[in-house]
């Protein structure tokens, strides 16, 4: 297995897809160094998606860990029909959504409350511009998740509805709600 990684290091940058395929194959065979390489190559993008979906750095860190734990057990399911990054993105979104459901259910049972993030208007930056990322984080959880998955990650409402266990119409309504809140917060309300 280590020979596989040694061969990988001799490839040119033009052979990046071959390099990643070799690392994936080695990781599938149980090579921990290869798995660590996959982790280091993709952790930033996975964390960014988790942060957008959770709206909380701590939850995003935990969800990122959960993604890579799940990845270890699901790696054999990657068949190479799509790019690894595309497949990992899908796994990340699904694991994060499941993770959030578990967290929400635990908090609700523990305190017998309905959770929702604060909807305060974030402070403007020194330049007078409002940070869109900060606004997205402030969206209510379901609206934020739908907005991120649809507007930023490019999922269709049918896919989102299946992932979040909701009706397609609910996904569209949550997306509309997110857009309206963002417009209001940015001072771009329709006349």
UniProtKB/TrEMBL annotation:
Gene3D superfamilies: 1.10.1740.10, Winged helix-like DNA-binding domain superfamily/Winged helix DNA-binding domain. Keywords: Sigma factor, Transcription, Transcription regulation. SUPFAM superfamilies: Sigma2 domain of RNA polymerase sigma factors, Sigma3 and sigma4 domains of RNA polymerase sigma factors. One of its GO terms (biological process) is DNA-templated transcription initiation. One of its GO terms (molecular function) is sigma factor activity. NCBIfam families: sigma70-ECF (TIGR02937). This is RNA polymerase sigma factor.
């Amino acid at each position: 297995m280590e020979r596989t990684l040694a061969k990988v290091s001799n490839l040119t940058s033009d052979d990046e897809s071959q390099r990643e395929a070799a690392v994936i194959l080695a990781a599938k065979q149980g090579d921990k160094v290869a798995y660590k390489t996959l982790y280091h190559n993709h952790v930033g993008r996975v964390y960014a998606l988790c942060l957008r979906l959770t709206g909380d750095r701590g939850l995003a860190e935990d969800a990122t860990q959960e993604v890579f734990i799940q990845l270890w057990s699901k790696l054999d399911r990657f068949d190479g029909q799509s790019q690894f990054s595309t497949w990992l993105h899908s796994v990340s979104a699904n694991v994060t959504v499941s993770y959030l459901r578990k967290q929400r259910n635990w908090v609700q049972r523990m305190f017998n409350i309905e959770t929702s993030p604060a909807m305060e208007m974030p402070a403007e930056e020194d330049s007078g511009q409002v940070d869109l990322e900060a606004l997205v984080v402030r969206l209510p959880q379901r609206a934020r998740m739908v907005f991120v998955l649809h507007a930023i990650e490019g999922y269709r409402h049918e896919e989102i509805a299946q992932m979040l266990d909701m009706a397609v119409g609910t996904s569209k309504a949550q997306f509309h709600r997110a857009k309206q809140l963002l417009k209001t917060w940015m001072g771009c309300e329709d006349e």
